[in-house]
Amino acid sequence: MNVLVINAGSSSLKYRLLNVERQEVLAKGICERVGSQEAFHKHGLDDNERVIDAQMADHDEAMALVLESLTHGPTAAVSSLDEIDAIGHRIVQGGKYFDRSVLIDDDVIAKIDELAELAPLHNGAALMGIRACQKHMPGKPMVAVFDTSFFQTLPPKAYMYPLPYELYEKYAIRKYGAHGTSHRYISERAASFLDEPLEDLKLITCHIGNGCSMSAIDHGVAVDTSMGLTPLDGLMMGTRCGAIDPAIVPFVMEHENLTGAEVNDLMNKKSGLLGISGISNDLRSVREASENGDERAMLAYDMYSNSIKKYIGQYIAVMGGVDAIVLTAGVGENCDKMRRMIFSGLQPLGIKIDLEKNKERGGERLISTDDSEVQIMIIPTDEEYMIARDTFDIVHEKIGVEGGVFVD
Length: 408
Ligand code: AMP
Fold this sequence. Notes:
Blueprint: E1 2-8, E2 13-19, E3 24-32, E4 40-43, E5 50-54, H1 59-71, E6 86-91, E7 102-103, H2 106-114, H3 120-136, E8 142-146, H4 156-159, H5 165-171, H6 180-194, E9 202-208, E10 212-218, E11 221-225, H7 248-256, H8 260-269, H9 272-277, H10 283-291, H11 295-319, E12 324-328, H12 329-334, H13 336-343, H14 355-359, E13 365-366, E14 375-378, H15 383-398, E15 401-402, E16 405-406
Parallel strand pairs: 1-6, 6-8, 9-12, 12-14
Antiparallel strand pairs: 1-2, 2-3, 3-4, 4-5, 7-8, 9-10, 10-11, 13-14, 15-16
Helix pairs in contact: 1-3, 10-11, 11-13
The structure holds adenosine monophosphate.
The site of adenosine monophosphate (AMP) has 12 residues, from helix 10 and helix 12.
């Protein structure tokens, strides 16, 4: 089955066409700065990526360009839209409604719309992606895969905030988490790599890149996660501050004469590695500056690793132990120096990193010493594959597919 995975952002439309049975990526690309004069469409696999279009007024036009590039000319991956069997959409906020991926119908669309209040940029964009697909590929089965659904298993003691209870009742203010598709994927792959049932393991999963989140997964069930009502909470990130003393918010508003929206912007876009280093949100640049003696870059680097270390401690306490710590995303997969800093000093907890293995590159691998009680693993994440697989499973279950033809 060929599944088109769509990840629509407020001004972007990322896509990947996969054959699920063969686990093969047939095509991928991204439309960026949609709706602006600088819009462009990049298409192609790995080193072959190149800009093939410009000018798209909205997501609808972007989708038309994507479908054209998938089916026509030198970029074609399939001969017609008939060869795309289903579409999987990444949706950031599923709120309390969705604890799993679902087939998209009018009711699902209405709920995604209702939840846009909790994720205005993201859910609104996802709806534009869904509507564009409905227009250009009417009747094609579509599945919604939510970033939050993996965390619907959190117990109330983990998802509630100690605020007046009415705020939860009135506005559903609670922890929803994010990056759930990535945490679900790497926890499943980690169990498979260790050749043990997920249900027998206590895992701490770390998605650390520009956005960062960690989860405690106890016997296959997510019991805590670091992102909150929004993806601003938890760890220090590239441009996001993560958890800070909430009293800082009114203080800064008053003293810097900022509105709520402005301070929100400051915490989301001007903080984290960028805010502390004053150099970049990109860890590679911060690392380089710190190695050249820049003190603020060194501080940013130290704070980023310390923030992760503290959550490891928290989640060991939450689960009463841990069997494996799993790292993924740009920093987790690639930065040996950051990994060394995160795990330094954790030997008393039975966590020992092997410094030689840590320097090696590759795919799924162990970087703990042979005598480490806790395994440390790297699992490259693949959210698109997970979305395609959910789409495949749901379309099979709900609709049925025979030889590429859907039957009721
Ligand atoms: P992501 O959000 O998963 O794409 O991750 C982006 C982050 O990963 C950026 O901060 C990059 O600097 C960082 N990153 C990617 N490759 C490396 C590398 N080889 N060494 C250090 N950081 C890296």
